[in-house]
Design goal:
The complex is a heterodimer of chains A (about 260) and B (about 260). By secondary structure, chain A is mainly α. Chain A is built from twelve helices and no strands. In chain A, helix 2 (about 25-45) runs antiparallel to helix 3, helix 7 runs antiparallel to helix 11 (about 200-215) and helix 7 runs parallel beside helix 12 (about 220-250). The longest helix of chain A is centred in the C-terminal third of the chain and has 32 residues, at about 220-250. Chain A starts with a helix and ends in a 6-residue tail after the last helix. Chain B has eleven helices and no strands. The chains are: A mainly alpha (about 260), B mainly alpha (about 260).
Chain lengths: ~260, ~260
């Protein structure tokens, strides 16, 4: 019960803090919109029938963008602020502290998702008729949480990289590309597809598209959730290793 | 002589001191790898949407990526000094302002051009585009000009840095505007009329068009008009940026607002 309370309150406070940051808030909405606009213009010029496909994909791009750069350096940010030691020495497991941070980041991406769908509708006339509204909502929630958990894994895995934001930033375009947000995975060379299958956003994207367009999203939802759980377990294991190493070498506060 | 030292040595020193992205841990992912993935992203969207050739996206995105090193690095000249609380010391020196600020732009132009050239070479190799050997030298000139005109825009962004705190947010918005308007991934003919008209006054638009024509085999004299237009646009942004820098510097002295933001 205490853990659930910590997760929910941590998520809520992080969400409030992120909402007031122009970099994570305003830019988090605007930046994916720039790319979405270009994608809409490209699809309108070449394949106008695929605009709805592009609109759904572009909307999830914002969720990933909200996480990739910021989550990479989430743990380091605590270090720079001098709060890392306090959080590590707290009685709660450190994962329970970090997880709400990255899930709040992906939740901020929902603003971008809504803005992109609205942008597509207002400026490009892309109507979104959701075939399975309930499954659509479930798909979005599972995708957002899974992307947040992926961010948690990145946050703890990149902690030894001093400029982790640059490494997180590096993953923005590749995941946009191989998760099939704007390009069908079938267009890529064969060796890229297994990489796509290992990413939670790939299945989350599929689930959102299937539920919106009238397919069968549940298998994709299940795979997205399963990969999210895998990232969580891996992240907890990495956290333990990193903290043990930092304690043994007295390097927790080093930047 | 002093002005020449401020221009050359001061420019290089401030670039090395303030642009902390020169660390290989930042430089490699941000300046060398990211532009290639931007090229791949749009080339594959282009294939999916069946609009333009790979060459169109390789050239457009490689040149547009100069906006990242040029605009960000130039705005760091103000924001970085202020963050380190050295802006006041810089501005009370008797150094002439033109060599002081313009000198800082020279390494930025060189870095922007190298970033763009690397992205063009690697992105082109991955996607297998062919550029005539005779086009390489004119293409290099165009890349340098695009980097210079983006640096002019960066000077304007640096001046706005006197007024706003979040220069990183501002620079990302500038990057996005250039991405949409300058014919990087959507040809100017496919953009709405007001957007293609506005694009004529932005850096990169003419340079990218010239580079595409050069890569298709046009001669330098054939694209001289476009290259001249790119140079003119960059010069105008540079002048506007310098004028705004001076005006806001004076204002910050009068109102004691140098460290306000």
């Amino acid at each position: 019960m205490k853990s659930a309370r910590l997760l929910v309150i941590g998520w809520f406070f992080q969400l409030k803090m992120l909402s007031r940051s122009s970099f994570n808030g305003i830019l988090g909405i605007l930046y994916p919109l720039f790319f979405a606009t270009v994608a809409f213009l490209m699809y309108r010029a070449g394949s106008p029938n695929a605009l709805l496909y592009a609109s759904l994909g572009a909307s999830v791009m914002g969720v990933w963008s909200a996480v990739s750069t910021s989550a990479g350096s989430a743990m380091q940010r605590e270090r720079w602020q001098g709060t890392l030691e306090l959080l590590v020495s707290a009685p709660a497991h450190f994962s329970l502290v970090m997880l709400p941070v990255t899930v709040a980041m992906s939740t901020i991406g929902l603003y971008s998702m809504a803005a992109t769908l609205l942008w597509g509708w207002l400026l490009f006339g892309i109507d979104l008729h959701v075939a399975h509204p309930l499954l659509f909502c479930v798909s979005i929630v599972v995708t957002v949480v899974s992307i947040g958990v992926t961010g948690f894994l990145m946050a703890v895995a990149f902690v030894r990289y001093r400029t982790a934001w640059a490494l997180g930033n590096l993953f923005e375009y590749p995941v946009w590309l191989v998760a099939g947000f704007l390009v069908p995975i079938s267009l890529f060379p064969g060796w890229v597809r297994p990489i796509s299958w290992l990413l939670a956003p790939t299945w989350g994207m599929n689930a959102i598209r299937e539920s919106a367009l009238g397919g069968t999203p549940l298998p994709d939802v299940g795979l997205c959730a399963a990969i999210g759980v895998g990232c969580l377990v891996l992240g907890i294991a990495v956290t333990g290793t990193v903290l043990r190493s930092a304690r043994a070498r007295a390097t927790l506060a080093l930047t | 002589m002093t002005s020449a030292r401020v221009f050359l040595i001061g420019g290089v020193m401030s670039f090395r001191a303030l642009f902390n992205w020169l660390s290989p841990w930042i430089y490699v992912p941000t300046m060398l790898v990211s532009p290639v993935f931007q090229i791949l992203l749009f080339a594959y969207i282009g294939r999916a949407a069946r609009v333009q050739s790979d060459k169109f996206y390789v050239i457009g995105n490689a040149l547009q990526y100069t906006a990242i090193p040029c605009v960000f690095a130039m705005s760091h000249t103000i924001a970085g000094e202020r963050f380190q609380q050295t802006l006041g010391y810089i501005l009370v020196t008797p150094a002439r302002r033109i060599p002081l600020f313009v000198g800082r732009s020279l390494p930025v132009v060189v870095n922007g051009a190298l970033t763009s050239a690397f992205a063009l070479a690697l992105g082109g190799a991955i996607l297998g585009i062919h550029v005539p050997v005779s086009a390489l030298a004119p293409l290099a000139l165009t890349i340098v000009l695009c980097a210079a005109s983006c640096t002019g825009l960066g000077l304007l962004s640096a001046a706005i840095g006197f007024l706003v705190r979040e220069t990183a947010t501002l620079n990302n918005i500038v990057f996005g505007v250039l991405l949409i308007f300058c014919g990087v991934n959507v040809s100017l003919d496919d953009l709405p009329g007001w957007m293609s008209t506005l694009a004529q006054g932005l850096p990169l638009t003419h340079g990218i068009e010239a580079a595409r024509k050069l890569a298709d085999g046009a001669s330098l004299s054939y694209v001289a008009g476009l290259i001249g237009a790119e140079a003119l646009v960059g010069l105008l942004y540079g002048l506007a940026g310098y004028a705004l820098l001076r005006a806001l510097e004076l204002q910050s002295r009068v109102h004691a607002t140098l460290e306000r933001a």
